[in-house]
TrEMBL record:
Superkingdom of this protein's organism: Bacteria
Species name: Bacillus cereus ISP2954
UniProt name for this protein: HTH deoR-type domain-containing protein
Keywords: DNA-binding, Transcription, Transcription regulation
Domain HTH deoR-type: 9-64
């Protein structure tokens, strides 16, 4: 796709940003070919981008900084695969019975579950601000919020206080999400998640993992749980064969093809 020589610098910079949002990186050669400009002009564009935005210069081009690619960019994740998440959340909510006490994890998929809770006299324990907002006007739900330090970016309560308060509960069921599920376990992006998730699974009769197809065979920075800690996996599509074999070995209930 050729842009033509008449495009001014500001227009080129907008196009470069659009390209980076989709492809992460862009080479100097690609800029020259795409915009039909000289290498000197492309270099001037790079200088302006790196001076005025969070774009970083690389050997031979530019790239999105790690800030823009963080897995914890909660708002972007909630917008992505929203139909999958809603379907999974609706299915998960059907497992909650009257008078049960449950834990709802900080997760965009688990958050979608909150609106579908129809059982009577449920007690929901959570440290997710978004989940609390969903539950606020539901008369069938009692809400317990784990205290602690507010993570403003991802909108949840964290830290020592939240962990200590968590230990006061025993749950009928817990519903957790994960950015990565492999044959050897359940993965998360941050070390703090390890301790919190390991504590949660000690205090329940049943662990439900909600994960859409994009999380399968994805490994993140920290392994929190082995698959033997999980009782039920709910997902939107058939899982890869390697995962299905391990899930069967551990006797995990697998609910797939959720629409």
């Amino acid at each position: 796709m050729k842009m033509g020589e008449s495009m001014n610098q500001e227009e080129r910079l907008i196009k470069i940003m659009d390209y980076l949002n989709e492809h992460r990186t862009m080479s100097l050669k690609m800029m020259c070919e795409l915009f039909q400009v000289s290498r000197d002009t492309a270099r001037r564009d790079i200088v302006k981008l790196t001076n005025e935005t969070t774009i970083i210069r690389t050997h031979g081009g530019v790239a999105l900084s790690s800030f823009h690619r963080k897995i914890s960019d909660y708002v972007n994740r909630e917008e992505k695969e929203i139909e999958y998440k809603i379907s999974i959340g609706k299915q998960a909510a059907s497992f909650v019975g009257d008078n049960e006490i449950i834990y709802l994890d900080v997760s965009t998929t688990v958050n979608c579950m909150a609106s579908f809770l129809t059982a009577s006299n449920i007690t929901v324990v959570t440290n997710s601000i978004d989940t609390v907002n969903h539950l606020m006007d539901m008369e069938n739900v009692n809400i317990h919020i784990l205290g602690g330090e507010l993570n403003k970016h991802s909108r949840y309560m964290a830290g020592f206080s939240a962990m200590e308060k968590l230990k006061d509960y025993h749950f009928d069921k817990v519903f957790i999400g994960s950015p990565g599920l492999t044959e050897d376990g359940v993965y998360y992006a941050y070390e703090e998640d390890i301790h919190f998730k390991r504590q949660i699974v000690k205090q329940t009769n049943g662990v439900f993992l909600l994960a859409d197809e994009t999380k399968m065979n994805q490994r993140q920075n920290f392994k929190a749980l082995s698959l033997e800690s999980i009782d039920t996996i709910i997902t939107n599509d058939v899982i890869p064969g390697n995962l299905e074999r391990v899930v069967k070995e551990y006797g995990i209930e697998l609910i797939t093809g959720v629409k």
